[in-house]
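Re-run requested by the PI after the first attempt was lost when the workstation crashed. Everything re-entered from the original request form. Ligand of interest: shikimate-3-phosphate.
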Amino acid sequence: MPDTVTTRYGAQAGLTSRPSKALRGTVGAPGDKSMSHRALIMGAMAKGVTTIDGLLEGDDVRATAAAMKAFGAKVERVGEGRWRVTGAGGFSEPDDVIDCGNAGTGARLIMGAAAGYRLTATFTGDASLRGRPMRRVLKPLEMMGVRWLGRSGGRLPISLSGGALQAIDYTLPEPSAQVKSAILLAGVNASGETQVIETEATRDHTERMLRAFGAQVDVSDGAEGRVIAVKGGQRLVGAAVEVAGDPSSAAFLLVAALITPGSEVTVRNVMLNPLRTGLFHTLIDMGADLEITNRREAGGESVGDITARHSSLTGVVVPPRRAVSMIDEYPILAVAAAFARGPTVMRGLGELRVKESDRIALVAAGLGACGVALEEEAEGLIVMGTSGANHDVRGGGAVITHGDHRIAMSFLTLGLAAREPVRVDEPGMIATSFPDFVALMSGLGAQIGAD
Ligand code: S3P
């Protein structure tokens, strides 16, 4: 497989999922997307060799790998999911535009990392990424001394010039691990101690991984929330990174089993970082039969195998404070909620409107097209659920994904347990985060194919 960006855009045939018999089997979770981006970026910032095992070989991460090459690192694929990054101890100026594809994590973290070096770089991405807010990252970077120019609203393409940064203390206005991470990566090369304060704890892979690369990162509880401090002038050194399985991808396989009668599916090696497991807690609250076995530590994260068995689910009110630990999982939770008895109330979801798509709007439209009653709110969604009987969701929708991988996978999952097939457009985008989705699902018995 070439280590180039292989995003697929433009007109594509759709993909259809059909009512399926019991799903059965054991599969490995694909590598975590968040960890994969970070491992490549820190490997390129570091001096020396970084080996990465279990890297997610999705389009988003490949775009980051290509970017790290452009910033001067040697990036090699040495086996399936096994990559070697030889960092020069810093970024050099790229001689062309950096294309981050569909990846918000890639774009924001790389801008933060690049900001610490004396260089000018121009970033762009696909149509979705070019529409997403970047000011949330550029504002704190500007406070640190970065100069930038971009499209109106702080949209890509954006050029920034970095180097000679000053540390800042910054309270995150929105709970965003990407913004936190961009500031911390810039802070490694700033003068003074940078502090990021978050009122709601977001995923902490950057903090954990910076330590694995030899940096000191201090985390404490302050009056306003969690304080993450990193001193400038630290040198990262190459590390061995083991990437745990992505709970956000495992979610589709597990929910497929929960809603498809007779199913029993085990997903191995799922990361169980408590800042990522909100969906599993919510599903258990709904009555899901989820069993975690073989808990262990791998690559600085706790991981386990999760078995899901078909369950009769009941709607719940999801605590809004849980949103941050399951922010990418609301589309698939909404699908589970469609099969539950009674309403599921999901609130505090403003951030969902600025993901790869407006996920509140697309989930509402897709569920509506599949005959599920719901109420859409400015920052929330209430899914009415059905009687809880098998195959009680009509399905039959032609779902518009706006190129959003998680919308596509969520509705293909719904179609397995609905009465009528469900079609999604632009299925090629699934490769951004879960290239083996259709193959793994099919191996479990799911009926998913081209229409
Ligand atoms: C991510 C953080 C989240 C999440 C995204 C990955 C990360 O985004 O939605 O898929 O790796 O830091 P925000 O930081 O915008 O909440």
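Saved to the shared folder this time. The CA atoms of residues 286 and 314 lie 5 Å apart.
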